[in-house]
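Incident log, structure service

09:12 report received: a user says their structure output differs between two submissions of the same chain.
09:20 pulled the input from the user's history:
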Amino acid sequence: MSGLVRSLITSTLGIFGNAEDEPLTLRECLAAHCRDEAMTRSNKYECPHCDGLQDAVKKLNLLELPEYLVINFKRWDHSNYWTRKINNHVSFPLDWTSGSVEDTDEVLDLAEFFDTSDLPLPPTTTYTLTGLVTHRGSYFGGHYVSYVLKRGRWVLCNDSMLGLTTREVIASEQAYILVYKRQALSPPDRKWDKEKASSYLASLSQYGPDSLAKKIKELTSSEPVFISKNWLIKCALATDAGLIPNRTSYPFDAADDSPSSVAEFKDYYCPITLEDWEYFLAKYGGGPLVTMADYLKCVTSGGHAL
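09:34 re-ran on a clean worker, output below:
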């Protein structure tokens, strides 16, 4: 799987049915995509430590969970003299609402493909469907149609024509691309998060980033780290805080939303304790970590690189 940005991961899955009409499930395709692969005989692993070829096992796991997961099925078979379309139907989990799920088998859960052993808190590994693209036709000609979940209702997008449709229609479609959004099975308890974010924002307003960083170091005897102030505001006020949008490079002369000066850069971040950072990161995702050394380097170098 290739990570395009921290909030999005795309994955291209093979369709391995032996017969054209053999039904498959999305979980079966994911399991096949991530299964162990023995590297032996002519496919041995070249070990950099022992400087030789060794038998090995290759396995694919998710290193981070994105806010959005885009799954693209390999529906074009190029293995023969001509290209053909693979028409096997792949059943997939649909959309659902937090707190209303009765059968978790109907939910896309990536827990088995993600290692949570090193995380201080178990992250949300469940996803709800928000979009679908299907291809109608064959390799020699066809048409792409998309479906989008908008305010709890499915909308068919067929060129300039828009219309409402049903979950039954979505489930029956031959999916080419699926778009999932990460969502907890139960509405998260965010009372502590809101209070903690509000506390940091109040302290930041009172002391400023530099003085607050010194106070955190005095109280904890460790260097503070930095988190997006705008994200703290969302965490304190919004229903869904989303991913933490920390960045590691701020060219102050850029035309985007990057800070345009050192003063704006300082206003972008708020110092917090490493313990609170690890809590927020495990629960909401995003990043990367911005240390005191990173912060000072960006301030003193004009913002071009942390």
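09:41 both user submissions now match this output. Likely a transient worker issue. Closing.
09:42 reviewer note: Residues 1-6, 249-259 have pLDDT under 50 and may be disordered. The longest helix spans residues 191-207.
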